[in-house]
Amino acid sequence: MMSNLFTAPVSQETLPNPDIPLLAVQNLHKQYQTRRGFLTAFEGINLNVELGEVVCLLGASGCGKSSLLATIAGLQQADRGEIYLQGSRLTSSHPQVGMVFQDPCLLPWLNVAQNIAFGLKLKHMPKLTKPELRTRIAEAIAQVGLQGFERSYPHQLSGGMAQRLSLARTLARRPQLLLLDEPFSALDAITRLDMQNLLLQIISQLQTTVLMVTHDIDEALLVGDRVLLMARHPGRIHQEWRITQPKPRFQQAHLLSEVRFNILESLSTVMDTPVSRIL
Ligand SMILES: Nc1ncnc2c1ncn2[C@@H]1O[C@H](COP(=O)(O)OP(=O)(O)OP(=O)(O)O)[C@@H](O)[C@H]1O
Fold first, then answer.
1. Is residue 184 within 8 Å of 192, Cβ to Cβ?
2. Which positions make up the signal peptide (predicted)?
3. Residue 126: exposed, middle, or buried by beta-carbon count in 10 A (0-12, 13-18, 19+)?
4. Is the ipTM of this structure higher than 0.95?
5. Is 236 touching ligand 1 by the criterion CB < 6 Å?
């Protein structure tokens, strides 16, 4: 499904420095004002994601995973703390930070190519010439295997194809950091596996740095170089595991059974719920 359009050219001046963490989050806090008063979504988050690393965030519902991702993406402001991309402080959304949500959020009146173009023309994006725009669109469509569907509209796409388009729209921006918020959780099991496979190919070919929220321990073990477990009240990072098994790991579930069990046990502790009820 992959094509030779897959190798996105990166100019020398945009090459990231491997000696600096691609993402550095320092002492980040976020509260929401609710009718009952202030609610702390997360506090004291310190997190580095190295260049090319894939970090998965697991945790009970409501522990602040999506809030953390949305804050890093610049979709909302933190109350305290700092976020750095390659050493430069982020204070709002950045063209090189791309986010994909569980809901593909497509524009129904635009076709596949136009949906991707829309993401490239947003206000904070660098201005592209028409040929550059066409190249970016073709490249992104090839990266997610949607060739032949350029003129299809969102209602003509399956759930998996819609999520491919959502991913393409973000990849077309050539982000240095890809933030994924449960991107496959609404898909059926077979499509999810297909999308996990696609994500692994994209990560390996583009060497994209990824911070991904998932509820699925197996998904985290399949794609993650590191798995972080968040605890709630307030949301904070409780524990982390480094997964060194080479990828792809589809046939290696047995080798990861021990770490899987450790994660399950810790999840059970932070959720105050027996392991049997989490499975
Ligand atoms: N815009 C908002 N206004 C008020 N409270 C919010 C807002 N967004 C999230 N919250 C609250 O902040 C807490 C963290 O929510 P968040 O969605 O970040 O958790 P999560 O770990 O991603 O949950 P889930 O896994 O269920 O998606 C929750 O208690 C939630 O109700």
1. yes
2. none
3. exposed
4. yes
5. no
What is Dmax (Cα atoms) for the chain? Answer: 57
Residue 10: band (very low, low, confident or very high) from pLDDT cuts 50, 70, 90: very low
Backbone phi, psi, residue 227, to 5°: -120, 125
What is the 3-state composition of the chain as percent helix, strand, coil, each rounded to the nearest 5? Answer: 35, 25, 40
Q: Is the pTM of this model over 0.90?
A: yes
Please tell me if the CB atom of residue 42 comes closer than 6 angstroms to any atom of ligand 1. no
Residue among 214, 223, 218, 217 nearest 247 (CA): 223
Q: Is 64 in the pocket of ligand 1 (CB under 6 A)?
A: yes
At the top level of CATH, which class does the domain 19-96+179-279 belong to?
alpha beta
Dihedral sign of CA atoms 259, 229, 83, 105 in order? positive
Which residue type, as a one-letter code, is found at position 144?
V
Mean pLDDT for the chain overall? 90
